[in-house]
């Protein structure tokens, strides 16, 4: 849909009107036959048709192009009233800048920023509304430190709120302690497995050393026996030598 032609000041050229909604072009596109349309209008038209609504020439979405530059400039220079005119805004500005103005217009209807409040109010009156809004929040006057809504004043109980907070803190503390306990147990279990593994390796190394020592002792005994045998043979040879 385009801009309501009644909002514009002065004459608007027919070439700047949408061929479908007959309002002033909004986000315009142009067909090869040079007829112009609002983007939303022509896209909606082409869902059910395959031709131009003006001259019935065949068109496709892929053939649509932006408006000619000179037409775009003429469109942007058009002067129109703010959409909040009915609320008291007297601003008249170019189509090129109307969106920027309306985003900041003091007469725009905006929602209250307090959660739960459904009031729509003019931007210029928002501060006044927030000061009296029944959904506004404030700190408890009794000093418990809680932020409460004015609508909940009669239901607020400092002792009950603090008790609830303590219970939540207690539950959170228990959860943290349990989590720390599980983490510590996991670390201890990991260290225990590591120590068992190291002990097994050391035990294997000790057994290997014992085996090597046993072989060495056996070799030493064999050498000592061989030495005794050799000494006896020498003594026998010496005895036979003296007898000769």
UniProtKB/TrEMBL annotation:
InterPro entries with a match to the protein in the record: Znf_RING, Znf_RING/FYVE/PHD, Znf_RING_CS, Znf_TRAF
Organism placement in taxonomy: Eukaryota, Metazoa, Chordata, Craniata, Vertebrata
Domain RING-type, first and last residues per copy: 18-56
Pfam families according to UniProt: zf-C3HC4_2, zf-TRAF
Transmembrane segments: none
Name the record gives this protein: RNF41 ligase
Domain of life: Eukaryota
Gene of this entry: Rnf41_0
Start-end of Basic and acidic residues biased regions: 227-244
Keywords: Ligase, Metal-binding, Zinc, Zinc-finger
Annotated organism of origin: Ciconia maguari
Nucleus recorded as keyword: no
Annotated zinc fingers (TRAF-type), start-end: 101-144
Domain TRAF-type: 101-144
GO molecular function: ligase activity; zinc ion binding
Keyword Coiled coil: no
GO terms for biological process, alphabetical: regulation of canonical NF-kappaB signal transduction
Annotated region described as Disordered, given as residue ranges: 223-244
């Amino acid at each position: 849909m385009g801009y309501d032609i009644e909002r514009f000041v002065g004459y608007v050229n027919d070439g700047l009107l949408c061929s479908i909604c007959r309002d002033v072009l909004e986000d315009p596109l142009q067909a090869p036959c040079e007829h112009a349309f609002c983007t939303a209008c022509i896209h909606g038209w082409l869902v059910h048709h395959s031709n131009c609504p003006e001259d019935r020439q065949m068109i496709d979405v892929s053939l649509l192009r932006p408006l000619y530059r000179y037409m775009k400039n003429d469109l942007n220079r058009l002067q129109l009233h703010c959409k909040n005119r009915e609320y008291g805004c007297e601003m008249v500005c170019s189509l090129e800048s109307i969106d920027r103005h309306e985003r900041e217009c003091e007469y725009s209807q905006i929602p209250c920023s307090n959660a739960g409040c459904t009031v729509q109010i003019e931007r210029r009156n928002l501060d006044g509304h927030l000061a009296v809004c029944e959904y506004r929040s404030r700190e408890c006057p009794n000093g418990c430190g809680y932020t409460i809504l004015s609508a909940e004043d009669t239901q607020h109980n400092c002792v009950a709120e603090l008790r609830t907070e303590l219970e939540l803190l207690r539950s959170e503390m228990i959860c943290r302690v349990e989590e720390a306990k599980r983490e510590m147990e996991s670390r201890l279990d990991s260290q225990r497995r590591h120590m068992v593994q190291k002990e097994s390796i050391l035990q294997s190394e000790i057994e290997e050393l014992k085996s090597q020592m046993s072989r060495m002792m056996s070799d030493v005994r064999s050498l000592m026996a061989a030495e005794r045998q050799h000494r006896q043979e020498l003594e026998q040879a010496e005895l036979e030598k003296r007898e000769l």
